[in-house]
User: Which sequence fits this backbone?
């Protein structure tokens, strides 16, 4: 075989290998995911998970060609996840003296499995190695909810005489009254709210639309916020319901920071202080007050009863 022919064969093999390399295919996956309407949060989780899997494969000297990756590499990755330290390689947060939670490990694995399912659908691979792998069961934890006393304490710490304070008061009441996710609450616009009928239109995970009722008290508080306390938007075309002092839409991170701030001022203990805890508090309160689980499933936007409290 001549040197030129060998060089040409090597080029063909290299080109073929690049076609099924993890990095190359994942770029295609992200493009498809966006065109299919998957949320940026879902894409971010998948990106983080695939990056962790790729680092693991490289550290072991394994191939990152998806054709070569089997159930064996996946099982080794599960063991790796069970042994690493939380925030071990985080650029800002200091490592903690504990491992990843069972829920975090399952989150990694589900995201990677979804990517591998896409590979099968797109015919880059014939069979999915994840069908041979059984995921470790995450521990079932009872999520603590806010007590009536804690809720009262949090609300009392908010200075409702200021525009920012009244906005925060309104948002926390809405979380308690509707069970909305943080992203759903900050994503509300004028067009989503019908105060007369006491309903808000919500776009949940996967851009699924649903209608959620709001109580009479929250209707009045929300009306007052819109009439007196909502800042002028920085962009005249902005229809976001909740704005910061500069007139820009409030973010989920800012909402979480606000909830944590008021919880600290209230000296709340024994419960995780986050917008999601208000969601769980709403769900438990709804059931205790005679609501049925099927209606609760629709209000929360859950696709399955398994994830409804």
Assistant:
């Amino acid at each position: 075989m001549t040197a030129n022919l060998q060089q040409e064969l090597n080029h063909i093999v290299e080109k073929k290998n690049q076609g099924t390399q993890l990095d190359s295919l994942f770029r295609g996956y992200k493009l498809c995911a966006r065109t299919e309407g998957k949320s940026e949060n879902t894409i971010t989780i998948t990106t983080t998970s695939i990056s962790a899997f790729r680092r693991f494969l490289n550290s072991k000297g394994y191939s990152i060609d998806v054709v070569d990756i089997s159930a064996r590499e996946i099982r080794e990755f599960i063991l790796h996840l069970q042994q690493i330290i939380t925030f071990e390689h985080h650029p800002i947060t200091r490592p903690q003296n504990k491992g990843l939670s069972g829920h975090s490990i399952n989150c990694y694995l589900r995201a990677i499995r979804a990517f591998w399912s896409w590979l099968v659908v797109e015919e880059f691979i014939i069979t999915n190695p994840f069908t041979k792998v059984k995921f470790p069961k995450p521990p079932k934890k009872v999520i603590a909810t806010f007590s009536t006393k804690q809720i009262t304490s949090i609300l009392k710490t908010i200075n409702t005489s200021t525009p920012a304070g009244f906005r925060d008061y309104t948002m926390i009441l809405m979380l308690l009254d509707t069970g909305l996710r943080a992203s759903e609450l900050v994503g509300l616009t004028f067009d989503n709210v019908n105060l007369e009928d006491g309903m808000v239109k919500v776009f949940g995970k996967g851009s699924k639309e649903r209608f959620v009722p709001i109580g009479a008290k929250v209707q009045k508080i929300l009306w007052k916020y819109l009439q007196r306390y909502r800042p002028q938007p920085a962009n005249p075309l902005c229809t976001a319901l909740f704005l910061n002092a500069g007139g820009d839409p409030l973010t989920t991170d800012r909402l979480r920071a606000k909830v944590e701030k008021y919880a600290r001022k209230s000296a709340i203990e024994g419960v995780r202080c986050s917008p999601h805890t208000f969601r769980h508090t709403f769900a438990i309160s709804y059931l205790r007050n005679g609501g049925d689980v099927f209606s609760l499933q629709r209000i929360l936007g859950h696709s399955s009863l398994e994830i409804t409290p």
The longest strand covers residues 199-203. Confidence is low (pLDDT under 50) at residues 8-18, 304-309. Strands lie at 193-194, 199-203, 209-213.
